[in-house]
Design goal:
This protein is α/β, with parallel strands linked by helices. The chain has four domains: 145 residues, 3-Layer(aba) Sandwich (Rossmann fold); 141 residues, Hect, E3 ligase catalytic domain fold (Alpha-Beta Complex), CATH 3.90.1750.20; 128 residues, no CATH class; 69 residues. Helix content is 46%, strand content 14%. Helix 7 packs across helix 9 and helix 14 runs antiparallel to helix 15.
Length: 521
């Protein structure tokens, strides 16, 4: 008679009412001894910290497979809830045991022992229903508790690249000074330099000091002696850039209750924004709200303007800002082939389908720039007094005690480095042979390098902070700022995005030399 024991325990169990794994094994062995059966440790199948609602459990699946292969005759468990808490699936499993003429014995079930092959099962359905009701009730209570904490901002789930959770108070977030420059650079490249996600990835991938989120967290887990179970993506991808650009966490806003799980072990579904809980000024911002809102406008506009300009290989100053005034379609960046190659713009409908859809609007970028500067000069003359009255506010990133935080982080890393060296010495001195010593040496070399690199990066940031605080910039008047914008050889993309709403390009044969452009602030 081939006998196996099965034990299971999960985090959602009431530890006072449900036995530990060792206790379950003792109960099963005691019962087996009364039947003169011997169950050795190798005959036990144990799923520790696994929910009973799912039947996709490693050891349980392995055991059932051996039952079906006729390698096990009897399975003994403490009670039916150890087998599972899904009513329908448990009843199906009992029928399978009966049809295979294999026995399932539950030592502490139905006020005694329950034997699948020999006992009546009139009330077994009630037991399985009760077990399922228990786990569903636990799940509901957990969801209600999480909902309450999310609603009050006391639950911050997951990690946020660029922020560190407070060790004592998990509801607080602090800026990670190592990652802050990366977040700032991504927003600058997108909003000021007008670069797309692919080009931003290329820039980040060319620099060793710009770790991807998974590389960064993998390193942090190793430092704590933990295993990082997720896939490590060493190169930046466009979806990572999108996640950062679309997340208002970087403006100091905490957003909770973004997803919801309907069923136990089910897939989480995204909730509409009106159901989110939003907490403004929850933590220190890395990016000003104005910059974040500009990034969203650019993203929305790019999504709306899915024209041939999206696959261009050259950079166009006014890309995405222009529309055809005759057919209302997007405008593509083109290369005008005449005496010399020049950048220009053309209606995307005309470029793709010809005169059937629209008319020719071909305009050189150089002429567009001339018209743009003339428009700004006209705007300055017309609204001179209004521009002069504008109050310039110096933008700051609200870096509260930034220098102290960096110094504290450097000191902490130095202490960790000392501990690492001491541990290395202890491991080497206690190793048995030269081969072991080489392995230990090589392992610690990489860990030491990471610590030193991290310290050097933070020291560079600290030096940059010191320099920045010493530099005093002369404040310009708004008119001087406006003149600089007009005279700029190539308009700053950030300024263009904030200054221009739309540039409409028309075709009008009655006016031979006019560019027929309308610019809207």
């Amino acid at each position: 008679m081939r006998v196996a024991g099965y034990c299971r325990l999960s985090r959602d169990e009431d530890k006072e009412n449900y036995s530990s794994i060792e206790e379950q094994k003792r109960i099963i062995k005691d019962y087996a001894s009364t039947r003169n059966w011997i169950i050795e440790d190798k005959d036990f199948y144990i799923d520790d910290n696994v929910s009973g609602y799912t039947f996709n459990r490693p050891e349980f699946s392995n055991m059932i497979e051996k039952v079906k292969e006729d390698k096990i005759d009897i399975v003994i468990a403490k009670d039916l809830s150890r087998i599972g808490r899904n009513n329908g699936k448990v009843l199906v499993l009992i029928d399978e045991f009966k049809s295979m003429q294999k026995n399932l014995i539950l030592v502490s079930e139905m006020c005694g022992t329950y034997d699948v092959l020999n006992d009546r099962d009139d009330t077994i359905g009630i037991t399985t229903w009760f077990n399922e009701r228990y786990v569903k009730d636990c799940s509901r209570k957990t969801r209600d508790h999480m909902y309450s904490k999310q609603k009050s901002g006391r639950l911050i789930m997951g990690n946020y690249y660029g922020y560190i959770k407070d060790r004592e108070d998990k509801t607080k977030l602090y800026v990670d000074e190592e990652i802050r420059p990366i977040i700032e650079l991504i927003y600058k490249l997108y909003t000021e330099d007008g670069l797309g996600r692919k080009k931003i990835c290329d820039i980040l991938n060319s620099n060793y000091n710009y770790p991807t989120p998974s590389v960064y967290y993998h390193r942090k887990y190793l430092e704590k002696g933990k295993i990082y179970k997720h896939k490590v993506q060493k190169l930046w991808c466009t979806y990572m850039i999108s996640n950062i650009l679309n997340n208002d966490i970087y403006t100091g806003t905490l957003r909770t209750h973004k997803k919801k799980t309907i069923s136990i072990r089910g897939k989480a579904t995204r909730l509409p924004e009106e159901e989110h809980f939003i907490f403004e000024n929850h933590h220190e911002a890395i990016i000003p709200k104005e910059t974040f809102e500009l990034a969203q406008r650019i993203r929305k506009r790019k999504a709306e303007n899915r024209s041939t300009s999206s696959i261009r290989k050259r950079n166009y100053i006014f890309s995405g800002l222009c529309r055809c005034g005759d057919c209302n379609s997007g405008v593509s960046g083109i290369t005008i082939k005449r005496k010399d190659l020049q950048k220009g713009y053309e209606c995307s409908q005309y470029r793709t389908y010809g005169k059937e859809r629209c008319k020719c609007h071909e305009i050189k970028e150089m002429d567009m720039l001339i018209h743009y500067r003339q428009f700004l000069k006209y705007t300055k003359e017309k609204y001179f007094n209004e521009i002069k009255k504008i109050q310039i506010k110096t933008k700051s990133y609200n870096k509260i005690n930034n220098e102290e935080k960096i110094k504290y982080e450097i000191e902490k890393l130095k202490q960790e480095y000392k501990i690492l060296i001491n541990q290395k010495i202890m491991d080497i001195t206690t190793s048995q042979n030269k081969y072991q010593k080489n392995i230990i040496e090589n392992t610690y070399i990489e860990l030491e390098k990471d610590k030193i690199d991290h310290i050097e990066q933070l020291q560079k940031i600290l030096e940059k902070e010191d320099k920045g605080s010493k530099i005093k910039k002369n404040r310009k008047t708004t008119i001087e700022w406006f003149d600089e914008i007009i005279e700029d050889n190539e308009p700053n993309r950030y300024i263009l995005e904030n200054l221009i709403d739309k540039i409409w390009i028309y075709n009008d044969k009655t006016v031979k030399f006019d560019l027929n452009i309308e610019i809207y602030l």
